[in-house]
């Protein structure tokens, strides 16, 4: 189980400090949302900021491109220090081509789906992916309410990946806190993006610990239930 704090909810006036704070909590991954004001109704940061953060952090940079025509920008973000690039299936006409471009640049590749986008959009690319990111809010702003209707989608994707691409991980983004962490972990998610629940907390490091423990506890409960079922 991985917690990836989202800097979208960090204080941009002290971004380096906030990143160092969560890095010292023992996390391995930082989630970086890139928004263009077209695909989503907000604008965030570009490759220059990613490059600046790369100089001060050894974390895995999980760069989430919420932008139109991502193929125009993936190389810039990889050069800036992205370890993983996630694009939206809804944002490009040539999904397979962009996936291959990201892989050719040496980065891990993910594809994101908005809450109302069906899993069928990934049917012919699942074997190529390292991550599938399921949005549990409508993208564009931090601090939104978790959409519970996405939970069956997580469950369904988990079952599909076991057959098609067991190494691909399920990531969820939106409204993640202690309570929803339990729900998505039970459904099959492995990477949890948490923004406001971490950076708006009076103690971000404790918030990370609490979310991670809640998710792990749910995983342990699931394993125990399966084990008891086998014994019976």
UniProtKB/TrEMBL annotation:
Keywords: Carbohydrate metabolism, Isomerase, Metal-binding
Listed EC numbers: 5.1.3.1
Pfam families, A to Z: Ribul_P_3_epim (PF00834)
Chain positions recorded as substrate binding sites: 6, 64, 140-143, 173-175
Cofactor annotation comment: Binds 1 divalent metal cation per subunit.
Cofactor(s), by name: Fe(2+); Co(2+); a divalent metal cation; Zn(2+)
Pathway per the UniProt entry: Carbohydrate degradation
Database matches in PROSITE patterns: RIBUL_P_3_EPIMER_1, RIBUL_P_3_EPIMER_2
Molecular function terms from GO: D-ribulose-phosphate 3-epimerase activity
Catalytic activity: D-ribulose 5-phosphate = D-xylulose 5-phosphate
Catalytic machinery residues: 33, 173
Positions contributing to a divalent metal cation binding: 31, 33, 64, 173
Family: Belongs to the ribulose-phosphate 3-epimerase family.
Function in brief: Catalyzes the reversible epimerization of D-ribulose 5-phosphate to D-xylulose 5-phosphate.
NCBIfam families on file: PRK05581.1-4, rpe
Official protein name in the record: Ribulose-phosphate 3-epimerase
Organism: Dehalobacter restrictus (strain DSM 9455 / PER-K23)
Phylogenetic lineage: Bacteria, Bacillati, Bacillota, Clostridia, Eubacteriales
């Amino acid at each position: 189980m991985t917690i990836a704090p989202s800097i979208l909810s960090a204080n941009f006036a002290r971004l380096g400090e906030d990143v160092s704070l969560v890095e010292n909590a023992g996390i391995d991954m930082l989630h970086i949302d890139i928004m263009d004001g077209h695909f989503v109704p907000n604008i965030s940061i570009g490759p220059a900021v990613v490059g600046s953060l790369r100089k001060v952090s050894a974390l895995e940079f999980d760069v989430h491109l919420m932008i139109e025509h991502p193929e125009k920008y993936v190389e810039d973000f990889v050069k800036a220090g992205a370890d993983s690039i996630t694009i939206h299936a809804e944002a490009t006409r040539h999904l397979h081509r962009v996936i291959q471009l990201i892989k050719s640049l040496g980065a891990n590749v993910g594809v994101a789906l908005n809450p109302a986008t069906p899993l069928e959009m990934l049917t012919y690319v699942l074997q190529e992916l390292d991550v599938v990111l399921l949005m549990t809010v409508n993208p564009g702003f931090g601090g939104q309410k978790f959409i519970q209707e996405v939970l069956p989608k997580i469950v369904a994707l988990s079952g599909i990946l076991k057959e098609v691409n067991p190494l691909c991980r399920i990531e969820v983004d939106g409204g993640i806190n202690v309570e929803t962490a339990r729900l998505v972990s039970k459904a099959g998610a492995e990477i949890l993006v948490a923004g406001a629940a971490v950076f708006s907390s009076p103690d971000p490091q404790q918030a990370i610990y609490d979310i991670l423990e809640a998710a792990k506890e749910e995983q342990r409960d699931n394993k125990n239930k399966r084990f008891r079922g086998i014994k019976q």
